[in-house]
Write a structure and sequence with these properties.
Rossmann fold, binds NADP nicotinamide-adenine-dinucleotide phosphate, 40% helix, alpha/beta, 9 helices, 291 residues
Length: 291
């Protein structure tokens, strides 16, 4: 029997209005997990700000929040560029008020054998995941310090921060950096009432990008997506709103003494290990195209 399903989508575990008067900025909040987290913050009364590069993603995020009746602002921004980030914060502030909660969710990833990875591929992923997280976090905190007010930051990590990610060395290294940064910043900014936590999601099926988890893996999409639930100890994949609940909890006053923590939401998948593992396939053999 699989792990029990969570309560239905549409419920909230926090009191109504927990985020009333708050502006929650979610990078990459127009798609996938970011959009799912945005919806839960909006359901609790937050005004939502979304930044990402593509107009269609910004549109999709705005439409989802508006459907809930929430207030939303979406601004084009490449988080690799600190100047664009500063301008985006200005535009958001003008539209819906100063950002009080930041979710560093935007990321990029694709499977590639390390020896075939171009310098450009390495830089693109590490700059979006690690540099982007750092640039957004520091922009946020500088503004909170000027305002003389606290806030909360939630970074989105991944469990291969601890295991390594053969076949995604760029993303795994960058996510390890994000987990580590969470701890450094939590200590630096606790005296300023700014908490910094991290969420490490497991297997969540991203309806906006269904191939994300298997893109480029030989025999990927068909083989993997046909039975994803059977590939995790929980016997089911994560429900998007479960992640949203974890995010809204960690950034809320109810988690006021939690900072520097990485919460894994993965049904114990990353702990799965056996003395006798499935037959070993080289990364080179499992990633297409081959060398
Ligand atoms: P996704 O749908 O591909 O979302 C990534 C978002 O990041 C997109 O909306 C994208 O928007 C934005 N983005 C990418 N590069 C950007 C840049 N340079 N500047 C600004 N925005 C940028 O992925 P997801 O599956 O929802 O993943 C969301 C987060 O969860 C990521 O941090 C990922 O590593 C983590 N995660 C996901 C899973 C899972 O099961 N799906 C598992 C572990 C961890 P634009 O293209 O418009 O820029």
């Amino acid at each position: 029997m699989p792990l029990s399903n969570p309560p239905e989508y549409g419920q909230s575990m926090l009191p109504a209005g927990t985020y009333a008067g708050q502006v929650v900025l979610i990078t990459g909040g127009g798609t996938g997990l970011g959009k799912a987290m945005a919806l839960e913050f909006a359901r609790l009364g937050a005004a939502i700000a979304i930044i990402s590069r593509k107009p269609e993603h910004l549109e999709s995020g705005m439409a989802a929040i508006r459907e809930l009746g929430g207030e939303v602002a979406a601004v084009p921004c490449d988080i690799r560029d600190p100047d664009q980030i500063a301008r985006a914060f200005d535009q958001i502030e003008e539209a819906i008020g100063p950002v009080t909660v930041l979710v560093n969710n935007a990321a990029a990833n694709f499977p590639v054998a390390a020896e075939t990875m171009s310098a450009n591929a390495w830089r693109t992923v590490t700059q979006i995941v690690l540099d982007g997280t750092f640039f957004c976090a520091t922009e946020f905190t500088r503004r909170r310090l000027v305002a003389g007010e606290g806030g909360a930051i939630l970074n989105i990590g991944a469990t291969y921060s601890w295991t390594g990610g053969p076949g995604t060395a760029h993303s795994a290294a960058a996510k390890a950096g994000v987990t580590n940064l969470t701890q450094s910043l939590a200590v630096e900014w606790a005296p300023d009432d700014i908490r910094v936590n991290c969420l490490a999601p497991g297997l969540f099926l991203n309806e906006d990008h269904p191939d994300n988890l298997v893109k480029g893996v030989k025999g990927g999409a068909g083989r993997e997506s046909s039975r994803p639930a059977s590939r995790v100890p929980a016997g089911r994949t994560g429900a998007m709103h479960e992640l949203g609940w974890a995010a809204t909890y960690l950034c809320s006053p109810f988690a006021g003494y939690i900072t520097g923590h990485t919460l894994v939401v993965d049904g114990a998948n990353w702990l799965r290990r056996s003395l006798v593992m499935p037959e070993f396939e080289t990364v080179r053999d499992t990633i297409a195209p081959r060398l």
